[in-house]
């Protein structure tokens, strides 16, 4: 039996603002995670990283559920550039 995926409303609101290809990649990563958990493996972390997004989840084994509790988009590429910029 597989695990269901449930997205909390707040996380769903942010997902709707992301690029379609990013949402598809996150969905595929979640489906793979649910399959892995259903096979009896335990994830080492409680987050998935795809492109510049971090998706946090909680696994509820009693209800066979992977619950997405938070999604955050990070602009990691801009941080090093901003730090390296000259400060005239």
Give a written overview of the molecule:
The chain is an alpha+beta fold and 88 residues long. It has a single domain (4-84), classed as YaeB-like fold (2-Layer Sandwich). The chain is built from 3 helices and 4 strands. It has helices spanning 9-15, 20-38, 78-84, and strands at residues 4-7, 47-50, 53-60, 65-73. A hairpin with a 4-residue loop joins strand 3 (53-60) and strand 4. The longest helix is centred in the first third of the chain and has 19 residues, at 20-38. It starts with a strand and ends with a helix. 9% of the residues are buried.
Write the layout of secondary structure elements.
Layout: E1 4-7, H1 9-15, H2 20-38, E2 47-50, E3 53-60, E4 65-73, H3 78-84
Parallel strand pairs: 1-4
Antiparallel strand pairs: 2-3, 3-4
User: How many E-type strands?
Assistant: 4
> What percent of residues adopt helix (DSSP H or I)?
25-40%
The DSSP helix count reads 3
Q: Strand portion, in percent?
A: 25-35%
Number of domains: 1
How far do the termini sit from each other? 61 Å
Q: How many strands, what sense, and barrel or not for the largest sheet?
A: 4 strands, mixed
By CATH, the architecture is named 2-Layer Sandwich
- SSE topology string: EHHEEEH
Fill in the CATH topology.
YaeB-like fold
Low confidence ranges:
77-88
Question: Outline of this structure?
Answer:
By secondary structure, the protein is of the alpha+beta class. Helices cover 38% and strands 28% of the residues.
């Amino acid at each position: 039996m597989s695990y269901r995926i449930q997205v909390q409303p707040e996380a769903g609101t942010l997902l709707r603002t992301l690029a379609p290809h990013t949402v598809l990649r996150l969905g595929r990563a979640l489906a793979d995670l649910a399959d892995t958990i259903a096979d009896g493996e335990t994830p080492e972390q409680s987050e998935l990283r795809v492109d510049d997004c971090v998706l946090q989840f909680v696994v509820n084994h009693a209800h066979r559920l992977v619950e997405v509790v938070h999604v955050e988009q990070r602009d990691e590429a801009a941080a090093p550039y901003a730090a390296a910029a000259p400060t005239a």
